[in-house]
Design brief:
three-stranded antiparallel sheet; 272 residues; 11 helices
């Protein structure tokens, strides 16, 4: 079950509970599922019970229990638990991380660029096309000259470097004779998976500034993950299933970063 599948399942579950008069409320048009920020809280979490409870006048945990029972019976869901005031933590049957990666690797890239103002000729001359376009989606107060410097404080550099890093891992893996294959990662990739799972929702919003901040979060999560979870074998070590799984995650991340940059009209170089 992919994140999109789970979103549809949660929405369908809420609608059925409303139709059965188990929840005297109007079913929402959309629901949100996200990867929890901490391990041990299921594969995904949703606040839909809190939203529905606002209309019913009943405690959110009561609404959550109605939805918990229904969701737990859905195919592909192994367990549903209620957390805090009424959040639902959902554990999927099978490999949820692998499902996220597979869905990203198989889906088509978005070819449609987001509407951005045309940078002024002076800005283009000072910064070049890529940095000039990024400056248009940057928060107020950013020193535009910083966008020309290849260092950590430059958000555009971090995003493009993360993409280049993913491509370097793929090249090095080819040299070592192995390819990516989604599977068990054997390490904490929670923040990275959460950012990847959030990409479709951010893209649908079609807000350039929001997309740029999302790419920054994704790049930072990827760079932290690669620093703690080696993707390639070391020394005389042979490529194992975990290396192929981590390579698949790196490949999916690179694809999402490139897609986001292209939507902003910015190049995604394979080398930096």
């Amino acid at each position: 079950m992919t994140p999109a599948d789970l979103t549809r399942t949660v929405l369908r579950t809420v609608r059925r509970a409303v139709e059965a008069d188990e929840l005297p409320a109007v079913a929402p048009e959309r629901v949100t599922v996200r990867v929890p920020p901490r391990p041990g809280c299921g594969d995904y979490a949703t606040n839909v019970a809190l939203r529905v409870a606002q209309e019913t006048g009943r405690p959110a945990r009561e609404a959550a229990e109605v939805l918990r029972r229904r969701l737990a019976a859905e195919p592909g869901i192994a367990r549903v638990e209620i957390a805090g005031p009424g959040f639902l933590n959902i554990t999927l049957a099978g490999d949820s991380a692998g499902q996220i990666v597979r869905s990203l690797l198989t889906e088509r890239r978005s070819a449609e660029a987001l509407p951005l103002p045309q940078p002024s000729p002076g800005l283009l001359h000072r910064l070049g096309a890529d940095a000039a376009r990024w400056s248009l989606v940057s928060p107020p107060g950013l020193d535009r000259a910083e966008l020309l410097v290849q260092r950590e404080s430059n958000p555009l550099f971090r995003v493009r470097y993360a993409h280049a890093r993913s491509q370097a891992l793929l090249r090095n893996a080819r040299d070592l004779g192995f390819a990516s294959e989604p599977g068990e990662l054997h390490g904490d990739a929670t923040a990275l998976l959460a950012a990847l799972a959030d990409h479709a929702r951010v893209t649908v919003a079609r807000t350039p500034e929001r997309l740029a901040r999302h790419l920054e979060r994704l790049a930072d999560a990827f760079l932290r993950w690669t620093a703690t979870c080696p993707t390639l074998p070391r020394g005389d070590e042979k490529p194992l299933a975990v290396h192929r799984a981590r390579l698949a995650l790196a490949e999916a991340t690179g694809k999402v970063l490139a897609d986001g940059l292209h939507q902003l009209g910015i190049t995604a170089p394979a080398h930096l």
